[in-house]
Amino acid sequence: MSITILGIESSCDDTSAAVVHDGVLLSNVMAGQEVHRKYGGVVPELASRAHQQHIVPVVDMALREAGVEVPDLDAVAFTRGPGLLGSLLVGSSFAKALALARGIPIIGVNHLMGHVHALFLKGPEHSPSLPFLCMLVSGGHTQLMRVTEPLAMETLGKTIDDAAGEAFDKCAKMMGLPYPGGPVIDRLAQEGDPHRFSFAMPRVEGLDFSFSGLKTSFLYFLRDELKKDADFIGKNQHDLAASLQWTIVEILIQKLILAVEKTGITEVGIAGGVSANSALKEAVRRTGKQKGWKVYIPEPRFTTDNAAMITMTAYFKYLQEQFDDQQITPRARMML
Ligand code: KG4
Ligand code: ZN
Q: Whole-model pTM?
């Protein structure tokens, strides 16, 4: 039996649609939202309006690029949550309407599970073997997962305050950089000295993470230095970015090493927006080489929010006949 699924992602500020056929990605179309840039963060009301404008052309393009027509679809998938409710409503309403019109199943997908399934988008020979560990590092979440089956994931530890992406974004904002700050810090850090400045490292037991202490340490450091020199940030942008990035990556890597030690699992992946970070990727590859891990990192286009990963989760759910009915509603908060 062959299975063709259309999936929609609209949890935050990217409208995306993808088509997966028998576990192989045929298309993945994205429309970002420039409208938030001048506000220094995502404005929920503007995000849902932009999703409304983008969803039809994005789905249309995803179907055309895949060479698939609406009657060929076996199911329609959508991100159920977590995310901005108004944004999620656009994707879920569209998916429900299309599925109802065609008389085909709908599949609601947990966005966090979707990020993990980005590791399956390069095809079976490049996907992690089960069981594997996945460190999910995004703008809203930072957690370590043990994956025993494609749909069976156990959280081993998670952040007790901010997410890693949030730490990047909030510290970048303190430096006067545009939103989202993560990629900007990554770029500035390329020419900076990662050991020029040092910031507080958290002391959190076990496999949980914390980033709020680092954020405060960064804020106080900038405040003190700016008193001495009003142009401190401008003069030290690259070293500040590199030192901040080094600290965040160090926090993440230490926990990843501990997770491997505790579980004995050496198939190790990273996923989520922050897994696009060049220093993190380099550190995971280097550590993996030293310690004999097999390392999996998604392609950059599948690290931040995208429908390809959501549709891959839907494919695994389809195989298990995990379908939803028309009463399903989106959820702003959802755990794994
Ligand atoms: O996974 P994602 O697209 O959205 C959530 O589900 O949260 O992640 C977005 C986060 C933002 O915080 C952004 O700054 C961060 O990923 N990010 C990066 C990089 N690219 C995106 N952080 C550090 N370095 C990058 N290259
Ligand atoms: Zn995400």
A: 0.95
Q: How far is the CA of 20 from the centre of ligand 2 (A)?
A: 19
Topology (CATH) of 129-297: Nucleotidyltransferase; domain 5 (3.30.420)
CA-nearest of 324, 104, 142 to 249 is: 142
Q: Which are the contacts of 217, defined by CB distance < 8 A and separation ≥ 6?
A: 199, 200
Which atom of ligand 1 lies at the shortest distance from residue 248's CA?
23
Q: Atom 11, ligand 1: which residue's CA is nearest?
A: 139
Domain edges within the chain: 4-118+303-319, 129-297
* CATH 3.30.420.40 fits domain 4-118+303-319: yes
- Per-residue model confidence as pLDDT tens digits over 206-263: 999 999 999 999 999 999 999 999 999 999 999 999 999 999 999 999 999 999 999 9
By most ligand atoms within 8 Å of CB, the mutation choice from 274, 301, 302, 310 for ligand 1 is 274
**Which of the ligands is closest to the CA of residue 165?**
1
Q: How many residues does the chain have?
A: 336
Closest ligand, as measured to the CA of 141: 1
Q: Which residues are 143's β-sheet partners?
A: 136, 158
